[in-house]
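> run fold histidine kinase
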Amino acid sequence: MGIPKAIARLDSFMATQEDKNVHDSILYYKFMKVLSHRDSTLEHNALIYTDSLLHLFDPEHVRLENPNDYSKALLLKGDDLLKQKEYYLAYRNYYKGKSFLTSIGEICECARYSSRIATISFKEENYYQAIEYWKQELKELSECREADNFQLEFIEKQGSMRNIGTAYLHLNDPAMALDYFNQASKFVRQNAARFPREKNFIRFARIVILRNQAEAYALKGDNRTAEKLIKKCLEHDPNIDWSVEVEQESRQILTQIYIDTQQYDKAQAELDTLRRLPGAVNNAFKYNSFQRMQASILYGRGDYKEAGKLLLAELENERIAKLKRNIATKSNVGRLLQQVQREHEIELAAGKDAREDLILRFSILISLAMAVIVYLIWRNARKKAMNLRAVTKLNGEITQSNIALLDTVNALEQSEIDKENMLRIVAHDLRNPIAAMISGSDVLFWDQPPSEEQAMIIEAIQQSGQLAFGLIGQILQSETDRKKIVKNEEDLAEIVQSCIDMLSYKGKEKRQTIYYDYEKAMVAVDREKIWRVFSNLLSNAVKFSPSESAIKVNLKKRSNQALLSVQDHGIGIPEDLQGHIFHSTNDARRVGTAGEQSFGIGLSICKQIVEAHGGKIWFESASGAGTTFFVELPG
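> ok
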């Protein structure tokens, strides 16, 4: 009946429905979007239907109950923005949709977003980023289990391979481009039989891949192979709908091959054929390409005057086109900034009440911190001779706070969910005092440069403070992020040394000596989490060892393992407590030899972290005879 009549009929039908639900409205707007999109006179209506569809998902419960429909609505909105060349806004919309799908574990649909983001990057000539997103799309598509989905299982996969190859062509890397074009050809050959109803599309896909391969061979300088492939592309297949665009691109490549091989008569014949194809003259980009090729043919024939005229005209057209692109980019950026400002104002209004209480607390903490800093600066000006002792004392306070914070983290990580918010508030409030201490250490020596020993102590202060910030950052993360293990190749010997440096001042207070014997051990670990394990073990050794005793730390690297041992000569672990050491309870909590507080669950956290790395942790101990803890990590 035609699109306008179909739209009118559907509108009339929906108006008669009194019990419409959200699912009916979703289907309605999606179908109206498709209908309007097919009629160029209704392009504005298509944009309105997309916005109406997105508006249905404003309530959070609607998004969670219809995640796939919500993600497809975001995809449609991104496509609208992309069509309007609003690349930045389109990218943000795609990224928002992909983040939502990732949060609910829907990896398959993420592939569509990766493809769109790659397309935007390609249009903005960020080819390396485009390649990475198309590779990510292939990875996501490999996790799809929709065997009959021709779009995802065939079109998207071979399309991504071809797109990666095209990006490498723009990077002037024909070898890599050919590799991906050959992969696409092999994929089509192996999977064509799975989709017998799509023979026409598959034949057409083969033609497009041939054209891509020809372009790569031409860039390599193998014009003979390129010409052979292009001529094969131009053999019309009566079983498929012929694409004028593919013919234009193929003949353009063939024309350039004839120019490069100085076959100017053949080049002129192909160029004349190109000009006769539908829509070729109206396409400004292709028209400029024709001008350049015509100039090359004239130049090759010795008609330098006419060739120069064409080149000058083409350069002027290019200059005008560049100015237009700059104007369009400026307009897009302006609209983007306005959108960001509006979103920021909405966020400020929504969070105003929640921030007022935090601002009051921050003001008190900042005032206290500033008072401490002013006092330290005043004392430094009056008593320069006491600098070293003041810095040492300040570092000791930071170290004590860091150790206490470490125990607090271990205790609070095992507490119930209803304590989570309070934990984050406490951690957040600790950031400013620690920042004040670090800032105070920076300004202690404004008047004169510090000595070498003073500089080392200040550096220790900075490192201790940064470690404390790291622990606070982990608290402020979500529970899932805190438990996530992100491994990188790390030097275990350096991590252990940093723990020893942090605890050296605590050991000196008890006149203890820490002996460290190590071998270089590069192991894939999560640095922050494995640092907490080593720091816990060393802190316990210091805490439960008597004054003037020795602590021995040993690190050995075997063929495929790394073994750390921490040996003390302290109070040991009684037999009745040894079975509870690695449990997340307070049954094994004891006071240190100098009255240090203990929460009794640090070793439970250590065991979880070590086992998450695929390692083992155990100990050997006897009451009153000291304890040796061992940590074995796969290397």
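Strands lie at 488-491, 513-518, 522-525, 550-557, 561-567, 616-621, 627-634.
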